[in-house]
Amino acid sequence: MKKLLAVLCLLGLLLLSSVPAFAGTDTGKDAEGILTNYLNAIVNQNVDEILTLVIDERYSSDGSQKEEYTHFLEEKKLIDYKIKKMSQESPTQINFETILTFDNGSIERVPIVLKNDKSWKVFINEKSLEKNYEVIQEGNQKIVTKPQEISPQATTLVSWSFTNRGGGAVFYSNNSFNISGSTATLASVTQTHDYVNLGWPVGITYAIVKKGILGDSMWGQRYLSGSISNPVSVNVSGSGSYTGAQVRFTTDIGNTSSMGYRGSGSLTQ
């Protein structure tokens, strides 16, 4: 009998240890409540309420964030959602898995992170959709088809020129473009920074992304290392079709945030 009781106690402890610490607690309920309010605000296209519930590191200006969020809501409308899973990363971070349905027929598995700094808020940055994001069902997209050209010359989708960018900076091309297919070209690219003469390495990741209210969807990306003063052109592979895409630049952190990165180039296809 004593052995049986010991086994039962052990099984009970194992079952309790398998339940997330926050499950059924006020912590989990509070975070899920904020996420529910956030998703309802997206369904209702209430951009002002959305902004009170989110921290989006992609923006340094509230004005530009509100302007782009308003565009995202009009472009792709959320009509239904399900909160499927939640797991506690730390006392101040809870990860959720959601299934979102949009008006164009798209169904997506979207990871959403909530962080607590005095209160729970949805946390978004440029990497929010890089892991555990999945398009379950493709939706209809309005894609602008390029007219067939007699000349084999590539079309410039977007160009850029930047200076005085810090190490570890993330920023986007000023102009947007439409992209599809599987290959594009980073053309006539130059990149360097102010500390090259001290031997500090140079590196920039060029990602072709579509910004959205829940993060960036990526078409493709290419990392270039080294100081490049003589323009180079390299291919970048991708997949999918996006309207309103941008080039997202991520500079290597280096030895200081004041790296003075500068560069130029264009994306062609």
TrEMBL record:
Residues 1-23 form the signal peptide. It comes from the Bacteria. Keywords: Signal. This is DUF4878 domain-containing protein. The lineage of its organism: Bacteria, Bacillati, Bacillota, Clostridia, Eubacteriales.
